[in-house]
Protein 1
Amino acid sequence: MSIKEISNNPTLAGQVRLIEDIVYSAADGEAQKMSILAPWTQRYKDLPQAKRPLLVFVQGSSWTTPTLGEKIPQLVQFVHAGYIVATVQHRSALDGHAFPAFLQDVKTAIRYLRAHAAEYQIDPDRVGIWGTSSGANAALLTALTPNDPRYETADYADQSDAVDAVISCFAPTDVADTFDFSKNVPGSDAMQFCLFGTDPTKWPAIKREMSPLYQVKDNQQYPPFLLMHGDADKTVPYHEMEDMYHELEKHHVAVEAYRVRGAVHERDFWSQQIYDIAREFLDRNVK
């Protein structure tokens, strides 16, 4: 049997590099990390490098520490589509980090990536954010509060945390409503003390501040929004997406929304069609 021959791949086309355990902040003395998916060409400085738009992904975690690797296998396709992808952690409410710690961290991660744009061949002027569940709550709040001093930290203060597009999958948009909907879920009460503090009389105001539904303001420049939610969700009620959609429309914000028929929270929500919709939205608004 003769030896077969194939051509080499001098441009490393289609090859993706995973860069793990990048510490972007040490708020409260705790290292916060991210993982970056980038073209493999970045390993070799003698190869041509082209700047790419950035997609920041925040995995849902019930406001605990997100699992960085949860969606990496699916996010690889966005590198093939021309993006740099960063999936980021944030501080956990269960470890004593009440709101707005998680939001501060996500914004700090965006500023870190802009500060290190040259290192990772990121175009800092083209940034999208995508979140799921509690991560989508963070993504929506990030988009609605660009460079808001309430949520800024001293890290990379010369950089912006504004984004150019936002994707939200099954987000809590009305936090009070979400906790009321899941009040019989074990641990729900404990999580409220962790997120909102030990004085329940202060909770309504904090829940409202943490609810994207109530952060849409008149005469503001917001990025375009893509909202997706399963109508059989037993964790975050589907109507919260509809409410958010109508609120954004009322303020003349560009928004698209998809009802995923029969889908629960996470699980059967996901399909290649979801990723295709997300990529097409990003291509129109970020790329």
Note: The chain has a mean pLDDT of 96.
Protein 2
Amino acid sequence: MTATTSPAAVPETLSPLTDVTRDEASLRRFLHGLPGVDQVGVEQRAAGLATRSIKKEAKRWAIDTAVSMVDLTTLEGADTRGKVRGLAAKAMRPDPERQDCPRVAAVCVYPDLVETAVEALAGSGVRVASVATGFPAGRTSREVKLADTRLAVEAGADEVDMVIDRGAFLEGRYLEVFDEIRAIKAACGSAHLKVILETGELATYDNVRRASWLALLAGGDFIKTSTGKVSPAATLPVTHVMLQAVHDWHERTGELRGVKPAGGIRTTKDAIKYLVAVHEVAGEQWLTPELFRFGASSLLNDLLLQRRTQVDGHYSGPDYVTVD
């Protein structure tokens, strides 16, 4: 499928969709029956949309929308409770001198720091997200992955970001990956599940499309490009493929699922390119934190600086915001 192929082109390999996961052969037949991605087409469309310019009034809206979509993240071995509290304070009031600045969507931490984040964000409306399942490599047993997930949820996480077993996927053990996502989804309870594909390791756009559909079939509430620990991380063409997948999923099932690019998105200019892609590929309905997120903490700093420029009419240096 090219980036402009209509949703009707998604093959009715087996119907209903639940039938395609009944065994390995059925799932393989469905995933490999998806139309191939036109590499030249998707890259050209992504490049074309990236050149779109927006007027001043729309830019202010785009900046505020992007701020509201940020998952403010700290995922380092040296993370402390104090750092998480500081991040939570920034999440609730990104620009303390500008009361009209929207809060971010979520704060994302490791499972052992979820309780600290929950306490710091209580009553704010900012969600707590936790990575799990042996993040970032995912090279551990399913029992450990499930325990990791339950630890996060029991500590109060609203969202869980899991990593798929890329080795199993690349070897074509699709049902194994599907079953693991389903098991993690069940362990999440009421928490939303974001499924990290680590697209930089999937090698082809066809694999990105297959992994996207596999995650959607298994119940992922979001599909996420990457952990931010592997290069390349998020790219516009890969995000186009994933946006097309959730759009086609909606056309096929009526269900709305989200997309989260993560890693390498650092400037307001970058963020606006992604928002244009969301609007043009998935649709205006996805321009909400409920269906689109940025996994990019450093992005918030530039958004705040550019927001001040829009509001004040002149550029404010980094001394005017908390730069992480």
Note: Residues 1-15 have pLDDT under 50 and may be disordered.
Protein 3
Amino acid sequence: MTKMTKFAVTGLAAGIALAAFSTTAHAQEQWTMTTTWPDNLDLIKIDQHWVELVNQLAGDELQINFRAGGTLMPGTEVFDATETGAIQASGDWPGYWAGRSPAFSPLATTTSLFNGVDYLNWIQQWGGFELYQEVYGDYNMVYLPYGITNNESGFMGNTPIESIADLEGKRLRLSGRDQGRVLEMLGGSQVTLAGGEVYQAIERGVIDAGEFSTPGVDYKAGFSEVADYWSTPGWHQSASVFGVMINKDAWDALPEETQETLKIAADATMAWSLSWSERESTDATVKFQEDGVEISTLSAEDLATIQDATNEVILRGACEDPMHAKVYHSMISYMEHYATWRDVTVPFNMSRSIDNLPSLEEIEACM
């Protein structure tokens, strides 16, 4: 090979390498992501955990610039911003969008139905993931569930709630359309407030009691400073799901390998979130007790009454909206199917054992 030929080959190889490097560098996507949670609410840690994993695992293909809730736009506007592509992604709690479709409500939480492991099972193995895609897909989005917290705290305030009879005439802050309907059937009145407003509402007596999230989140929000009483369990949100809304066009622009990386990061964050939340809730319960907050627990009879009201609300909602019916039909089908194994493992089972579920036949009649 002559010197000139060697030079040409070497130059060609260098040019190909430089072009490949330039293409790789140029191919890295840059996303902007925000969330519904401001910095002072601990739920933002779930969003941050996912973003950190994605940036580590997909760093050559994608980097996400994460901004705390309220720094780019009000939390109420993140849905529209993601749908239109003004931003590529946003962390959320699906229940905030129940005004657009009631199907978002059970995708976020259930009243007296799923616990955290139920949501994990259902999302991963019983068709739940596909239903998130169907509901969010109507709004030009892909959805990756990446956070689960188990039972919420319950109601905290300066009026003791030791039975459902004590709910009569009470003004309580809680989120969710279905949750509000159950509360109304029990004699209470739903007050809708942003999470950051609950502390002052309890302190000033605007509400008789309120809830926001798990004990870990509520303690760091300062609830022990303004509440003397705590009513458990948090039947209104027996578990909750959080995730990331991704603009469909931004998602489709990613290579399949990068999409899979985002899904893997979501699964890892989901497992982390459940154990993180349970540890935080345990530590916070100790602190609530040390601060002198008096804890009471509703009786089994009261919880059975709440279950009856829940079933009625589920059936009522199913006949108002076919997608709402489809989601609940899937959830209840899961619980009936899983019971064949779950109930023979007592007391070592991981899911709720319920012998009073809404009627699948009545839901099917509304689909």
Note: The chain is about 50% helix and 15% strand.
